[in-house]
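Could you please review the protein record set out just below?
***
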Amino acid sequence: MRNDSATASAVLALTGGPANITHVTHCLTRLRLTVTDPAAVDEGALRDLPGVLGVIGAGSASLQVVLGPGVVGEVTAEVERQLAAAHAGAVEAGKGTQAPPATPTGSPGPEKGPVAAALRRVANVFVPLIPALIGCGIIAGVNGLLTNAGWLPGLTPALAAIASGFMALIAVFVGYQTAKEFGGTPILGGAVAAVVVHPGVAKVTAFGVHLSPGQGGVLGALAAALLATRIEKWCRGRLPGALDVLLTPTVTVLAAGLATLYGLMYAAGAVATAIGTGANWLLTTTGAFAGLLLGGLFLPLVMLGLHQALIPIHTTLIEQQGYTVLLPLLAMAGAGQVGGALAVYVRLRHDTTLRTTIRSALPAGLLGVGEPLIYGVSLPLGRPFVTACVGGAAGGAFVGFFAMLGEKVGATAIGPSGWALFPLLTGNQGPAPALAIYAGGLLTAYATGFAATLAFGFPRGTTPRGTAPAPAERTSAS
């Protein structure tokens, strides 16, 4: 039976204790911690902890502990509860030197690699928005089916309003989360970002043209909130307390708001348009090759925890076109992983431990959650990780080839992949062709990942009746 309290206690102990944790949050599969002293983290013991599928970012201030879907939310809540209890006990005992309780707010500390750090912080802005994107996307998909079929005409307007409400105001949520992540006042970030979607911007002229409500989308909101945070910090460092209360929020909203209207919205709109144009050109002219690259290289991004940094691009495409054409291509990486895991299951049929891991992780893999298979199967073996990428590349090339023929496949929301993406699929020719092409891509990735792993995924001397390679062999195989 799973014991979330024991897991949380062990994670805290192995990451240096409550005093070493300054920031706690989670995504769909990972507990994300910010630690004061990275050297205090016992990476090896943490990886060996039952229930832990992998550890990312060891040696840096931003640590990710892969726990899997469902489990991560419960363990995170338990970690936060134990941190709060530890802090309360320290205060009661008069230990004023203890670190404050970790919360999802605040800014993570420095970590190795400025580019990786920046991408992770941008990801932290968008990850909390994923549940709403998923829920609203599924409702939009159901509403589209009902509308096309002519069913429940009295209900479809209500469903449309529910599905589109969040997307209409997503800039505000992005602004709020941006300020929260980068150390500003969240509500001020949301207030400045709200300028982007306010209907009154249609009366504003910038660079000789009228602005449009929503111009620049989430990119404009992100830039506006970042600027607001910088202005707020500048003001707070220079104004005395009595003036700070009145002038800091006023100057922050006014200065950042004007900069948003007369610069950031225009620039972000140009970038957003370039993203949409570039994605369309990429698929219509080099679809098969683009799909091969995207499907083949996505697993390493997932392994490094950098895949969430693509969320702003997906969101921008959804705002512009109603769907993101990139997600179905990237989803093929998980399908290649499933095919590779099945090949390992068949080939090493006497390795009962590995086969048990595959059986438990395969349902999540079919639904697009790849971390259990990555950290439990393919990455430890080495070669199967590479052959799984080959399977993802083949599936991506399949979907991209049809995009070259004018049949684009897109997802109305982000988050799910694998089989879980079917309710969110649509395309320029409607949902039916998109469903068929996506299914064909999954089958291609499954089959190619399976065949490539059987042919090239094992060191010489590993027989169908043998067990998994020894640890030294696995290392050399990679």
Remarks:
- The beta strands are 21-26, 30-35, 54-56, 62-66, 205-206, 209-210, 410-411, 425-426.
- Residues 96-111, 464-478 have pLDDT under 50 and may be disordered.
- The two ends are 34 Å apart (CA to CA).
